[in-house]
Write a structure and sequence with these properties.
Helix content: over 70%
Distance between the termini: 8 Å
Oligomer: single chain
Shape: globular
Number of strands: 0
Order of helices and strands: HHHHHHHHHHHHHHH
Radius of gyration: 18 Å
Structural class: mainly alpha
Largest sheet: none
Length: 304
Amino acid sequence: MTFITVFFQMLALLLMIGAGYLAAKKGMLDAHTNNQMSDMIVSIFNPMLVLASAANSVGQISLDAMKLAGGIAAGMFLAFILAGMVLSPLFEKEPSQRKIFQLMFVFSNVGFIGIPVISSIFGPEYVVYVSEFMLVYTLVFYTYGIALMDGKLSLSSLKAMVNPGTVCGFLAMGVIIFEIELPGFIKTAVTYLGNVTSPMALVAVGFALAESDIRTIFGQVRLYVFSFVKLLVLPLALLPLLRLVMTDTKLLAVCLVMFGMPVGNMPLILGNQRGLDVTACSAAIILSTVLCVLTVPVLMLFAG
């Protein structure tokens, strides 16, 4: 896939973000509505898209490929944890803020943005691989993420692992592994519900952009450097390892794009819950999301 082709596909996603921005500026979308939309995306539409991807991919995806993608997802998070430990002091010296940067290195937007990106570039059948990244994300967040911020694990954080995303993720893997053919009406329903994910998620990003201080987002040099490292340097540094363990060029490209996803919302949520200053985190989320329109085509270029 050429740089120009991928760039225009990413540009289409940026236009959907623009629609959310305009809707917010015109008063058609407020914070309450946006929160409800986000809850629906996380609890209904994202999980349904993962399940629909599996249901429509029965017989097309091998168990070996699923195992490989799961192992790569685990390796990615381990690499990002180590990178966060080493690199976060370069961006922030204050201890609590340094923890926020560590979380930003580790927890990318693999679902909210990853699903629309993978679906638009590779096709909806490849979203099933995203489910494995989402499952590993959940396990790492509610163990390493909570422990990093609090210095300990709690029973409530472990219970939070059981949510619609993880449940549908395991169901999706079961559908693929056991080659379960879902009834046509169920497949149709989950497919239509899943199709809502991409535009609604991107509209929500546009709302966040409209509600933010543009100068705070686009005026900090260190956040550009951070985004460059996270979106390009780390994924490309891991590319030789990907080439060592896989020969399927399409799956390699999917995994590389997942490595290069922008900062996710969970570091922001954790920081808010603990009363920390999350201004830099909020700006990094939006800046890295906008910049990935340029960086994802570059990653695809290197993926071959």
